[in-house]
Amino acid sequence: MVTVDRPTAQEDKVQRAPRARMTGTQRRHQLIEVARGLFAERGFEGTSIEEIAQRAGVSKPVVYEHFGGKEGLYAVVVDREMETLLEMVTSSLTKNRSRYRVQQVALALLTYMEDRTEGFQILVRGTPTSGDSGRYSSLLTDAISQVEHLLASDFQRRDRDPALAPLYAQALVGMVTATAQWWLDVREPSKEVVAAHLVNLCWNGLMHLELDPHLVGPNEPQDDATSES
């Protein structure tokens, strides 16, 4: 006769212990993270409330209770990503000296894309209504505007035409963002090396490239004709 070991009373109690319920804030955060992964993977149209709920282990009414629907949840996900990226880029644009500032902008974008790849994919994929990357384009427009302002002041101090600042701002931001999107696919060399070479091109031009560019510290000599921004 085969003897079957029965669980002890203590083991049975452990096995049947209910999982701790999440607070409303914890549940909301969980749903946002689950939705962020699905939106990045499948886009807005390819993601359903049912699938979000299933992956989060809740019923559909719970998702509706927190966000009102898929559009509301998507908007929250996008707003959080925009806030994160904008804070990183703006901080880099408004501090430190000129070359170091350009370097930190490139690093901020690369770091965001590396750490929050899903969020970046959502931003560039487009909104459910317009079908274009309106939020990301808006962010780039803000960044270009800030760079334009900085360059105009720099050009004026150096007796150069400040009317050319918009052209250079478009070129600089465009070069950094295009290179960053390429790097997201290949992930090599390291983001620090990519940032150093981007600044090398921005700062020195093709005719005066450094042989071995490296990232500079905020107080290192930077061959900056304007010295301080």
Automatic annotation (TrEMBL):
Residues 25-85 form the HTH tetR-type domain. Keywords: DNA-binding, Transcription, Transcription regulation. The keyword Glycoprotein does not apply. It holds the Pfam family TetR_C_46. It comes from the Bacteria. Residues 48-67 bind DNA. GO terms for molecular function: DNA-binding transcription factor activity; transcription cis-regulatory region binding. Residues 1-26 are annotated as: Disordered. One of its GO terms (biological process) is negative regulation of DNA-templated transcription. SUPFAM superfamilies: Homeodomain-like, Tetracyclin repressor-like, C-terminal domain. The keyword Plastid does not apply. InterPro entries: DesT_TetR_C, DNA-bd_HTH_TetR-type_CS, Homeodomain-like_sf, HTH-type_TetR-like_transc_reg, HTH_TetR, Tet_transcr_reg_TetR-rel_C_sf. This is TetR family transcriptional regulator. It comes from Williamsia limnetica.
